[in-house]
Design goal:
Helix content is 92%, strand content 0%. It is mainly α. It has one domain (2-98). α1 packs antiparallel against α2 (34-59) and α2 runs antiparallel to α3. The longest helix has 36 residues, at 63-98. The protein starts with a helix and ends with a helix. The model has no long low-confidence stretch (mean pLDDT 89).
Length: 99
């Protein structure tokens, strides 16, 4: 009985996170500023990580947690690289405006 309740809870959590994932995708595509795009990508990666870890609990598969850790590292590097590019572009724009 308790296992069935956990299965239902995990399924509802994955559905709720899936909805938030699409909200993050919308934010990263339609965001008016570059910061909104970067935050949308970060939020999407975080929600995907949460879905993978809940799926690992639901299926009782520990290898999915390894996949989740690798995905977190890749998403962190992606956000750092995007932020670095954004900073360099803004610095170049300011330098061009002052010249």
């Amino acid at each position: 009985m308790i296992d069935r309740a956990y299965d239902i809870l995990f399924t509802v959590a994955i559905c709720a996170i899936g909805f938030c994932l699409f909200a993050g995708l919308y934010r990263s595509i339609k965001g008016p500023r570059t910061v909104d795009h970067i935050m949308g990508v970060n939020m999407t990666c975080t929600m995907t990580t949460m879905c993978i870890s809940i799926l690992a609990l639901l299926l009782d598969e520990t290898y999915l947690l390894d996949v989740c850790l690798i995905y977190v590292l890749i998403s962190f590097l992606a956000v750092v690289v995007l932020t670095r590019i954004f900073i360099n572009v803004n610095i170049n724009k300011e330098r061009d405006q002052h010249d």
